[in-house]
Fold these 2 entries.
Entry 1:
Amino acid sequence: MRDCGGSVHWRVLVLLVLALAATGPVQAAEVTVVFRYDDYSARSNTDLEVRLIDAFGRRGIPLVIGAIPCFRATGPDDGQTLPSDKADILREAARAGIVDVGVHGYSHLKTGWWTELAGLPYEEQLFRLRRGRELLHEAVGIEAETFIPPYNAYDHLTLRAMEQLGYTCLCAGKLGRLDDGSLRFLPSTCGLADARRSIESATRAGDSRIVVILFHGFDLVPSAPESPDFLGWTAFEELLDWVVRRQDVAVRSIRELLDSDVDLSIHRFAANRRLSSMPRLVPSFLVHLFGTETGAYLSTDEARRLRTAKTGLYLATATFYAVLLALGAALTTALRRRFGRPLVLLRRAGIALLVAATAYACQNLTIGVHGAIATSVIGGACLGLYRQRLSRL
């Protein structure tokens, strides 16, 4: 009996080893990276753009360029269209397979609050979408199928006009209108400052992701005010080299994705839209712990799965700040019992610190994680200082 039992145990062990060997180590999913440069126009920095196209050409990777067909156009006046030298640069780069060109609005001129198209009547949007592509075709000889709305702003009339004119893909942000139709969606997911972190996070995932890195000329050349994604040229080239060296990353153009079987459907966009961006007050260690980084375009199934994880993340974040509040209160309560009267005199100073911390936390009308931590701890300290007075109420 013992021999029989031992034989069974060995048999199970061998089968287990064979199964593990057949499965092999879990391979990181290949991540698709798209570099998208916006605001190529008659007024943009030509020297920088020649240098940019050369940098991608030397590395054999594609660059998506959102081109503004005419600059500061008003009504029937096409404004300043692409001059011959700028058009030639795009044409030659496109022929060489370095550049994939998208229509970046008609003139990029605001017609409302941070928008060129959204809010305009249908016929006006139809004109701008049609005329923009015509001007780009006349200048560069490219029949662009991708539309990149200025300021990421569009509405249901924009989508309707795009379909009528035969556009294939919309590239904006993760937030936007959804309408049934045949359009495909590829939103930007991060800027240059977050590119490495987003790519590294995406390669650790078990599902293929797309990282769309959106940048402008002012992200590479200092300007006033500086872009929050400012990287500088040297660091930018280092980023390109780092991406090219990675075996788990493939740099592709939007055209390549549209010609492939990659899912860019409205269903994927809808699932990612519900995730949207991560509030700044959520600590990064919790984001990593829950695996809810938003610097990539997730598959439909993964985005739906992470919606549940994101709910848990917010509960954990609330608990984290509640613990900080309680720790601040407990610490000052203990100090007040030890030192008594002298610490009570710090009540007003504590309120002043709380006001200052709150103002710091809400700078630029957004709450950052460092400010939220400071506010929680100081707020808890104030509760500890005023604990006796509050208990009498």
Entry 2:
Amino acid sequence: MGFAPRLRLALDAGGLHLPEAGRVAVFAPRAGDDLSALPEGLVHVVTGFRPDFDHFAGLGYDCAVVPEGRYAAAVVRLPRARARAQALVAQAVQVTDGPVVVDGAKEDGVEALLRACRARVAVHGPVSKAHGKLFWFQAAPVFDDWQAPAPREIAGGFVTAPGVFSADGIDPGSALLAEALPAKLGARVADLGGGWGYLSARVLERAEVARLHLVEADHTALDCARVNLPDPRVRLHWEDARHWRPDEAVDTVVTNPPFHAGRRGADPDLGRAFIAAAAAMLAPHGALWLVANRHLPYEAALSQHFAQAAEVGGNARFKILQGRRPSRHRR
């Protein structure tokens, strides 16, 4: 990852000077980012993505979902979604009294954001290295129009927010899975990586469901799910679905697992980890229902963790996989 080399180069020879006192907020860093070039003991990590939050908290960093107080400087690691990237910059400017450092890879849209910032403030840098750029500017109140827009309503009456998965409409894979689910799912259901709640809403159409756990790592998506699922049977969990476990075994797991890690291409290991997690939380009679893009190789993992594994539906783009009777049941 190029963030640390770009930051060190900017600090050592690029002209970036951070205040000697005061906290430095780091917005949306990714697990694996090296923050050691920043002032020791003064770094405050701000992220709503649970795996990254847990990673930096485990390293001893002070972490929060939203900014807390004022900062002497800020570092923004750009996400790929443009609206979310702009909102992070606006948020950093609002709470920072000194320099705001922006870093991103080319595929994150850093070039376009650099041009947009230059049109508003005097920009220093950029430092280019490892297929990315880092630049900085003095915080100034000229980014108010970049603030995060309010959640919006899409078809079906659901509320979403820019930057979350399937923000512009119901994901076709999730819709396909929802139509394939059987009438009976049991009393206890878990939706892993449930996003803003579409699959969970469809599961709740069944009166027999007494408890539904929606597990989601993106705090913004979970806030949308809270609006979309005003049902007392729902329990929302801001957790990494790969590691979360319910208090009692569930009868059914439904999931449309993510298949991108960071900014890399497709990573089947994510879906495989969801399959393993599902097997670990299901009752012995339980079943997993999963939808995935056709090219993702999940069949071997499904057979490894379930006594019965099969493709039970789909179309040219997606496949619906079912696993029954977890073969490595662990509590």
